Each structure stands twice: as C-alpha cells, then as structure tokens.
Task: structure prediction
Amino acid sequence: MEPRHTISVWVENIPGVLSRVTGLFSGRGFNIESLCVAETMDPEVSRITLVTTGDEQIIEQIIKQLHKLINTVKVVDLSELDHVEREMALVTVKAEDKSRAEVLRIVDIFRCRVVDVSPNTYTLEITGNHEKLEAVLGLLKLHGIIDVVRSGVLAIQRSKKE
Result:
C-alpha cells in the first residue's frame, strides 16, 4: 500500500480554481481520498486540504503540477512536516436494547458524542485522526452502522516548540 500524503494548497478564492485542481488529479489518473476547502483569514485566498496516495515520485509530480496552476499561491506536503490532522464523522448506528450499553461504552472510550437519539438508533459525532475514525467505525460495524458521513481531513502544521 502506498503512503498517504496530506497536502495543503493555498489558492486564489475565485470560481473555477477547485475544478482546475481536481482536474489535474483526474487528468493524470491520481485519486483524491479526501478533500476540504474553505476560505482562509484572507477572504481572497482559500485553503484546499487533500489526501492522496503515491510514492515519492508521484507526490513530487503532483506538487510540481499544483505549483504550475496559475491561481496557486502555495503548496505544502504536510506529511513531510510535524502536523495535526483531524476528521469528523457523523454515524447513525443501531442501538437496540441489547446493544445500547455497549455502543455507549464505545462512545465513552473514544470520546465521541451522541448528537441524536431515537428508540432504535444513536447518531454519533466522532472527531480524531484517520486511524481513530477507522477504529471506531470497525467496532461500530459489529452493532450495525446505518449511515456514515465524513468531513474529510483537516490538517495544520504544528507550531515549533522552543
């Protein structure tokens, strides 16, 4: 399995830029596993955080191509740096009489939040890194996942410690 890379791309906040970035990936047969886009503190700049896989040569090619796009301001492969990643998922899971307590134990152990309750289901908010979400989802599958919505990865470089 090829390593995952989290890449931050600062771009001009104008129509069509996201389409050009994703087009770069699809045109070269690269997959985007996760994609988040939002305006930065500067309303004229947006930050795209994307996760893709590939060996060093492929990632180097992707970064060079991103730099060539006319509306690109900055590109950083956060995987090469000390950084923090978070992702959020909303999960509706079966919570029948026999499994309600066990689902709540999982919620407690992984510091999730119950955000909605019905007689037969819980809707959970799970926040953490990719590995944590995969671990929680793996356990919840045993109880019956009804629906999952994931936000995609957000990442930021850690501040330097002096």
